[in-house]
Design goal:
- The protein is of the alpha+beta class.
- The chain has one domain.
- 34% of the residues lie in helices and 16% in strands.
- It is built from 6 helices and 6 strands, in the order αβαβαββαββαα.
- It has helices at 6-15, 42-45, 59-65, 90-93, 106-114, 120-131, and strands at 35-38, 54-57, 70-72, 79-81, 94-97, 100-103.
- The strands form 3 sheets. Strands 1-2 form a two-stranded antiparallel ribbon. A two-stranded antiparallel sheet has the order 3-4. A two-stranded antiparallel sheet has the order 5-6.
- β3 and β4 form a beta hairpin.
- The chain is globular, with a radius of gyration of 14 Å.
- Bound molecules: zinc ion.
- Zinc ion binds at residues 20, 22-23, 25, 57-58, 60-61.
- Residues 20, 22-23, 25, 57-58, 60-61 line the site of zinc ion (ZN).
Length: 135
């Protein structure tokens, strides 16, 4: 049961310009529903239902992120928070390399790994959208 009202859900979606705020998948081309992600999960970590804690997320990013908020970066061995779409800028932490999403920083790298952004199906879907000028 969603804790987020329909008007709030619509505002989050609009603010995100109808794209996943993590992997940038356009919601019009997803066969699964998008979710309002609690950037800091409510139950496990005390996050709020306020707009500053909400992000528009594709099914894949939302379910792989689940209750995670951080992980160890392979390059630095430092515990690193996942990307926060409300307080950080996507292009500072990620870049596209064809259909692949590359983490530029520890935050970007842990987010790409935990959210499995370069899983084969995700990469293939991005490539198809790019090939048909819908990305
Ligand atoms: Zn996504």
């Amino acid at each position: 049961m969603s804790r987020v009202s329909t008007p709030v859900r619509n505002r989050v979606r609009q603010r995100a310009q109808h794209r996943c705020e993590y992997c940038h998948l356009p919601d019009a081309f997803s066969s699964y529903g998008f979710h309002v992600d609690h950037i800091i999960p409510v139950i496990r970590h005390g996050g709020s239902d306020q707009l500053e804690n909400l992000a528009w997320a594709c099914f894949r990013c939302n379910t792989t992120k689940a209750g995670d908020i951080a992980s160890y970066d392979d390059d630095t061995d430092q515990l690193t928070p996942l990307y926060n779409p409300r307080t950080q800028t996507w292009s500072e932490h990620f870049e596209m390399d064809g259909p692949w999403i590359m983490g530029l920083t520890p935050v970007g790298r842990v987010t790409v790994r935990i959210l499995e952004m370069n899983a084969e199906k995700q990469v293939n879907a991005r490539q198809l959208l790019m090939d048909t000028n819908r990305w």
